[in-house]
Fold this sequence. Notes:
By secondary structure, the chain is of the alpha+beta class. It contains 3 helices and 4 strands, in the order E-E-E-E-H-H-H.
Amino acid sequence: MSIxxxxxxxxxxxxxxxxxxxxxxxxxxxxHRGKLIRLCTDACLGAFLADPDVFCKVHRNSDKAAARMKAxxxxxxxxxSTYDSSTKSD
Length: 90
Ligand SMILES: [Zn+2]
């Protein structure tokens, strides 16, 4: 396995928190219905594991909002890298 030095990435945890420029591998994760989900803290993971379905239900709306936020952040990161390369050629 190779470790890639990735450019800043944004990701959302199941509980609706957004992290950017942070490596998701440092966050607790779990499998749920065949999907890898991430949580912000071990406490959050514990709450998820206690009752995954209830946790998902409670956070479903924030999950949607998080997905929107994530798209927005990725868009901004795209703009930043465009800006970065345009300043370099100056
Ligand atoms: Zn959380």
